[in-house]
Sequence to fold (465 residues):
Amino acid sequence: MNRKLTLLAVSVAGVLGLMSSANAATDPETLAKAIAKQEAEIALLKQQLASLAAEQKQQQQNNVEVEKHVSKVSEQVSQADDRLSRFSFKSYGTANYTSDEYFDNVQDTTGERRSRTDLERIVTEFGYQFTDHWSMEVEIEYEHGGTGTALEYDGFDEFGEFESEVEAGGEVLVEKAEIRYRPSQAFGIKFGNIHLPIGLTSILHKPNQYFTVQRHKSEAAMMPAVWNENGIGVYGEIADFHYQAQVVSGLNSEYFRTYDWVASGHQKRFEHVNTDDLAFAGRLDYGNFKTGSAVGVAYYFGNTSGNRHKSNKLDVDGALSIVSVAGAFVEGPWILRGQYLYGTLDNADAITLANKTTPGLQPGNFAQLGSESQSFFVEAGVKLDQWFDLPMTVFANIDYSNPLMAVETGTATKRYENTWSSVGINYFPIPEIVIKAEGGLHQVAVASIPDTNFFALGVGYQFSL
Fold:
């Protein structure tokens, strides 16, 4: 562009020089030739000026287009960054080794020690914040390293037998899939597949949130652990109070069992969940169990007969109620947590009889169902890094369960009344990883069954992006 301007300046200078020469000439013919030459050069000069102006205009347009493109790319990058900032990913998992004494069946009084390893679970959590008020979260759990058909040995089925079981819903399952609308801290609503706030395991289920190698046996022996159902709920936080209230799909009494009471009634094994009977679940906490000290109560109520597949086998209600009282004290290096669960089941004998006579259900699975059930756990720990340069917590734990606390008729067997007492350590090489060791005593409330010892090792991780 500068070169063209230089040539143009030279041309102008030349024209001016010719004009000066023309003024000096007196011969008409010479003057006419000079004028013609000047006019030609002026016309060429005008043409060059027009061309130059056109090039300048095109350059300006190009610059504008470049600026628009740069602005568009910058906006797209900004939008991508914004979308990425709204996405969250979390994961946790555990792998365990256990050495326990097992009984071949409920009549056996001599245990056999077996050692087992288990990739217990890998959980992935995906979240997205659509707006300031709308969000979603999906949690997928992979249990025991895979999915497919498994051969299981059930020692509590009559005298023990092998069963082939398709682990649909037990090995890979959606543990949560909820959409949330929360316009304020005081109020929010969520719907989809949601966690029920019954039991501390639903709140403290990551490996760094409980001391024992495995989640608390007492809760799993009474009701579904990390209980999730399809439904809708409201929740919120007012001062230091946290509340939840939900209406969800109920349990199916066809799968209630003596040894874990109503836990097996969770309808996760089916493609469709029967919701003829709904249930209510509510919780009120003061404080926050995930971060420190807290106390809380929870309540569950729902009928279980309407969700049976063979609805003609039972013509009475199987109303179920569960009450939970829990507390946690966290101060300095000291940690103390505990929970008590109590439940009642109406018409437990009628449910047992209906299950025994339902085609397709193996009669040997069904002994007495408790009309009342209870369980509790207490765990206490102290962090040693308060006094030593050692990221370790030592703990003691007691788990107790009795799914046959009371029965409608007859005498309840104490074969399923269990107590697990243990001590152990949690070691954190880095904050995201915990290595656990636990040893303890398992006691059954039957005099003929000896106390047995158990030992467990575990490793767990958790992180979030």
The chain has four helices and 18 strands. The longest strand covers residues 112-129.
